[in-house]
């Protein structure tokens, strides 16, 4: 390994900068050169490649987003695009690439490896939806950001004795919703994994809570369930209680990363370079059962993950 390329791909996540910084500085410690590939696979195909030095990554550990930019790229899904990407790596002397992103980005890394470039994936997504790992970079910051926003909605919701539906991100995964549900003490949590929510039961719960004297009713709804606005209208019509939907949206993706995200990103970024230097390729870094490990990309992509039923049952009991 002489020159390591690093890119961020898919949705951005707080902590990606800390991961890039760790890759750059660890690689330099090994005596390697480092190139930053901007805008994910799209920037690779456009040859938007810059030299990175230890100083290029100063002052970014505390910043949200990704200074390398990120993008989605349709062309890289084609065999021609993938071959072109690998050829461009070779043209720039890049023999190995660290890909920071989600499952889709790892598919891309697998294709680069199939075309002769050593690759290693680092899990970066606020959604926590990568099956092989118990942690993905950005999750902690996103949950904290959403939690603080939901606290604010709760204040006004209580004052007006309203019912509030707050929709959080997570794509098809309900981890942010579940964590906020517990952290914010929500009365109800709607998760895509358990998409059996019964609106009549939800309405009965709201009415029963109001009879018990509860001043608000907070429902955390996951993006994967969606339809918060129409749900609010139906609940208001059925209960007579003023009901508002708040969709938190992209604010959940930004902001300065928490300590946890900075540390996890730093360790995983360094681990990725160690793995490459140890001769590994076509693998993904993971945090599993309290340890940093790595998996074959194909094996990692085939894994399944589910919402912890105990955590969900706790959320339900505490919401009573
Ligand atoms: P997030 O979970 O934050 O959305 P992600 O990495 O899963 O992140 P995707 O949009 O699925 O996000 O993938 C990012 C990019 O990876 C795609 O735009 C594409 O360039 C590349 N990619 C995705 N799937 C494949 C594939 N099967 N083969 C090659 N490249 C792929």
Task: Characterize the overall form.
Answer: elongated
**Helix content bin:** 40-55%
Structural class, from secondary structure content? alpha/beta
Largest sheet: 7 strands, mixed
Strand neighbour order, sheet with most strands: 3-2-1-4-5-10-11
Order of helices and strands: EHEHEHEHEHEHEHEHEHEEHH
Q: Unreliable segments (pLDDT under 50, ≥5 consecutive)?
A: none
Give me the number of helical elements.
11
Radius of gyration, CA atoms, in whole angstroms: 22 Å
Strand residue percentage = 15-25%
The end-to-end span amounts to 57 Å
Bound small-molecule species? adenosine-5'-triphosphate
Q: Which whole number gives the mean pLDDT?
A: 96
Tell me how many strands there are. Answer: 11
Give the gist of this structure:
With 320 residues, the protein is α/β, with parallel strands linked by helices. Helix content is 42%, strand content 18%.
Descriptive account of the structure:
The protein is an alpha/beta fold and 320 residues long. The chain is built from eleven helices and eleven strands. The protein has helices spanning 16-29, 40-45, 79-91, 103-114, 139-159, 175-183, 199-211, 228-239, 259-277, 297-302, 309-318; strands at residues 3-8, 33-37, 49-52, 96-101, 118-123, 163-168, 188-190, 217-222, 243-247, 283-288, 291-296. It has a seven-stranded mixed beta sheet with strand order 3-2-1-4-5-10-11, sandwiched between helices. α1 runs parallel beside α9 (259-277). The protein is elongated. The protein starts with a strand and ends with a helix. The model has no long low-confidence stretch (mean pLDDT 96). The structure holds adenosine-5'-triphosphate (ATP). Adenosine-5'-triphosphate (ATP) binds at residues 9-11, 41, 72-73, 76-77, 101-105, 107-108, 111, 125, 127. The site of adenosine-5'-triphosphate has 18 residues, from α4.
């Amino acid at each position: 390994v002489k020159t390591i390329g690093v890119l961020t791909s898919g949705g951005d996540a707080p902590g990606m900068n800390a991961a890039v910084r760790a890759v750059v500085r660890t690689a330099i410690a090994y005596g390697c050169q480092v190139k930053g590939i901007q805008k994910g696979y799209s920037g690779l195909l456009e040859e938007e490649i810059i030299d990175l030095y230890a100083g290029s990554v100063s002052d970014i550990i505390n910043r949200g987003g990704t200074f390398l930019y990120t993008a989605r790229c349709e062309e890289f899904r084609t065999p021609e695009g993938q071959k072109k990407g690998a050829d461009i790596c070779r043209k720039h002397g890049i023999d190995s690439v660290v890909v920071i992103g989600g499952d889709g980005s790892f598919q891309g890394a697998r294709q680069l490896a199939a075309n002769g470039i050593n690759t290693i994936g680092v899990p970066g997504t606020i959604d926590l939806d990568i099956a092989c790992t118990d942690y993905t970079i950005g999750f902690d910051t996103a949950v904290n950001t959403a939690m603080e926003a939901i606290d604010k909605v709760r204040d006004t919701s209580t004052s007006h004795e309203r019912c509030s539906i707050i929709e959080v991100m997570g794509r098809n995964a309900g981890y942010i919703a579940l964590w906020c549900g517990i952290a914010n003490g929500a009365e109800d949590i709607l998760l895509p994994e358990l998409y059996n929510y019964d609106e009549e039961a939800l309405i009965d719960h709201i009415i029963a809570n109001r009879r018990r004297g509860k001043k608000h009713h907070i429902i955390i709804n996951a993006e994967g369930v969606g339809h918060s606005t129409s749900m609010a209208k139906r609940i208001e019509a059925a209960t007579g209680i003023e009901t508002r939907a708040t969709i938190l949206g992209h604010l959940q993706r930004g902001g300065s990363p928490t300590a946890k995200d900075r540390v996890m990103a730093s360790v995983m970024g360094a681990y990725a370079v160690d793995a490459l230097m140890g001769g590994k390729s076509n693998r993904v870094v993971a945090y599993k059962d309290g340890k940093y490990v790595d998996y074959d990309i194909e094996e990692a992509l085939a894994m399944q993950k589910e919402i912890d039923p105990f955590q969900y049952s706790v959320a339900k009991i505490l919401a009573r």
